[in-house]
Amino acid sequence: MTDEIEFRSDVTVELVRAQASDNDVLFAARVSTVGEQTLAEAGTDEELAARDRGLINYLMRDRHGTPFEHNSLTFYVQAPIFVFREFQRHRIASYNEESGRYRQLRPVFYVPAPERNLIQRGKPGKYEFFPGNESQTNLVATQIREQSAAAYRSYEQMLDAGIAREVARMVLPLNIYSSMYVTMNARALMNFLSLRTKDETSAFPSFPQREIEMCAEKMEAFWRECMPVTAETFQANGRVAP
């Protein structure tokens, strides 16, 4: 019996755990000049003095990156597999993804929302994307839904016939959802955000695929809560990773 197929147009990002604060940057930066500091000596994130903010800005502006590495954020992400392919090009993070070899993948598939741009123009590296018309939007949604459902039926037929999961999964399309944990420090996250978000204030404009940008936006929102001064300084310095 075919499981009920679900179609989604969103992604899930949750902050599982974080050991990350603006003070982590200050501790790391000052150890070479003043030695170890305690949290009480440094003050809380809310009480960062102007000199502390200035130090974080100096480190960001002049790209002294290692003080931004002494922290950790772990995210849980649900997104289509083609998004994870892009994630894992960033080899400055740790990933653990659910395995289609060891469990049956759920029939959850991505279909672009109607407002998602569909038309691509321009040269490689300088693409611009524009909305599709109603006919194009309907074509994309219909074809993705039909092909996803047909692929999952084939997948189930092979499983029912005793075919190994690692073989049966070969028929599944890239828009099936997977899930993973990803852990990175703030420096790695800033590198990721500089490439996977489009921001008019960025010193080096990026043109990310919308689906991974949706993940990046959610990750950045969590990070800003943990390290507000660092995030503010990253923005003020053109969103360039130190």
Task: Write up what this structure looks like.
The protein is an alpha+beta fold and 242 residues long. It has a single domain, classed as Gyrase A, domain 2 (2-Layer Sandwich). The protein has helices at 22-34, 39-42, 50-61, 81-87, 134-160, 165-168, 186-196, 210-226, 228-236, and strands at residues 6-8, 12-19, 72-80, 94-97, 108-110, 119-121, 128-130, 177-184. The strands form three sheets. Strands 2-3-8-4 form a four-stranded antiparallel β-sheet. Helix 1 (22-34) packs across helix 3, helix 7 packs antiparallel against helix 8 and helix 8 packs across helix 9 (228-236). It is globular and about 65 Å long. The active site is at residue 196. One of its GO terms (molecular function) is thymidylate synthase (FAD) activity.
Helix and strand topology:
Blueprint: E1 6-8, E2 12-19, H1 22-34, H2 39-42, H3 50-61, E3 72-80, H4 81-87, E4 94-97, E5 108-110, E6 119-121, E7 128-130, H5 134-160, H6 165-168, E8 177-184, H7 186-196, H8 210-226, H9 228-236
Parallel strand pairs: 1-5
Antiparallel strand pairs: 2-3, 3-8, 4-8, 6-7
Function: Catalyzes the reductive methylation of 2'-deoxyuridine-5'-monophosphate (dUMP) to 2'-deoxythymidine-5'-monophosphate (dTMP) while utilizing 5,10-methylenetetrahydrofolate (mTHF) as the methyl donor, and NADPH and FADH(2) as the reductant.
Subunit structure: Homotetramer.
GO molecular function, one term: thymidylate synthase (FAD) activity
Pairing-aware structural class of the strands and helices?
alpha+beta
Range of helix content: 40-55%
Low-confidence parts, pLDDT < 50 over ≥5 residues?
none
pLDDT averaged over residues: 92
Name of the CATH first level: Alpha Beta
The best one-word shape is globular
Number of domains: 1
Q: Alpha-carbon distance between the termini?
A: 53 Å
CATH topology: Gyrase A, domain 2
- Rg of Cα set: 22 Å
Question: Total helix count?
Answer: 9
Q: What portion of the residues fall into strands of 2 or more residues?
A: 15-25%
Strand order, sheet with most strands: 2-3-8-4
> What's the total number of strands?
8
Biggest β-sheet strands, sense, barrel? 4 strands, antiparallel
Query: What is the correct CATH architecture?
Result: 2-Layer Sandwich
